[in-house]
Amino acid sequence: MTLPTFIVIGAGKAGTTSIYHYLAQHPDVHMSRVKETCYFAYDDAAQQLTKTHPQTAEYYRVKTLAEYRSLFTDTGGAKAVGEVSPQYIYTHTAPPRMRQLLGDVRIIAVLRNPVERAFSSYCMYRDQGKETRSFEQAIDDEIRGVGQELPWGWHHYLDRGRYARMLQPYYLAFGSDRVHIELFEDFQADAPEVMRRIYRFIGVDQSFCPDLSTQYNATGRPRNRLVHMLTHKRQWTTVLKNQLPKWVREPLYKCVMKARRANLERIAVPDHTRVRLESWFADDVRQLEKMLLRNLSHWSPRRDESTMVGAATAYPLNANTAMTTNAGPATIESGTVEKIMG
């Protein structure tokens, strides 16, 4: 039986759903039929969370090893086998569990400007009816530690953009040659080139050209609420999977997602909030630059103009948050992560 040879660990709201579909198109790649299995994130803390907040159980779709193995029973001789679960980047127990079961599995992460990622995550939860606060109130509450009783994921808009800390366990567990990092901005600007680099990293033909015409899980303000409601992703995936053959449901699903995206208008982060958050993330971005050997000043162009009380270095990680990294083609020398993180 073949188990994953690579895993996309996140980050959330950074194009991982699109990458899942583009990987699945490659003839030499087999992707788990369940996206976001979250198997390696289902640790003791997650099990306790699902008991205290039963509504979070839906996030952990695969809970047992038998269930996980069943996703890869028919890989058809694929050269690369993988899955995508953005929750992994935030879970400090995931890397050792992966290492124990999968050995030298290859790790892929896509990182997005943390300010944009936080706002996109907020918009998603707001759209789902799980968030009623303003964005400013939500980040104020998180910085002050208010709302920690909220279910998993609903109040970690800032903490989940601290990539340097979250990526470290993956480098320590697998080594820099097994960890590949891309930036969401590069993916937006040149998706074909990013996919070529990912194909090359997982060991399949990089000349394959996937159909990139559909972008998945876009967020924004709906122009028409009825269209937005009728094109909701989850209801369509459930209907299509249960009632239509693959050759019919895949093109229909693409059409639905295109209609949904066309109905959205982009919402910008308010300027005063952006300046504030760029300062908040500045120290973590500096650490990430050293780990990736890459200039990320476009994420925090005003980061040296001011400092904010309660910046990221003073904000404690919760027990379920992790860390790691590498950027695109950049390579990190042995021991660099340990030196950077101290």
Q: What do you see in this structure?
A:
The protein is an alpha/beta fold. It is 44% helix and 8% strand. It contains 14 helices and seven strands. Strands 2-3-1-4-5 form a five-stranded parallel beta sheet, sandwiched between helices. The longest helix has 22 residues, at 271-292. It is globular, with a radius of gyration of 19 Å. The model is unreliable at 305-336 (pLDDT under 50).
Alpha-carbon distance between the two ends: 40 Å
Strand order of the largest sheet: 2-3-1-4-5
Number of helices: 14
Let me know the average pLDDT. 82
Global structural class: alpha/beta
How much of the sequence lies in strands comes to: 5-15%
Ranges where pLDDT stays below 50 over 5 or more residues in a row are 305-336
Element-by-element helix/strand order: EHEHHEHEHHHEHHEHHHEHH
Number of strands: 7
Radius of gyration, taken over Cα atoms and rounded to an integer in Å: 19 Å
Main β-sheet: number of strands, strand sense, barrel status? 5 strands, parallel
Backbone shape: globular
Task: Estimate the helix proportion, in percent.
Answer: 40-55%
How would the blueprint of this fold be written?
Elements: E1 6-10, H1 16-25, E2 29-31, H2 44-52, H3 65-70, E3 80-84, H4 94-102, E4 106-111, H5 114-127, H6 135-144, H7 163-174, E5 179-183, H8 184-189, H9 191-202, E6 221-222, H10 225-230, H11 233-243, H12 246-262, E7 264-265, H13 271-292, H14 336-341
Parallel strand pairs: 1-3, 1-4, 2-3, 4-5
Antiparallel strand pairs: 6-7
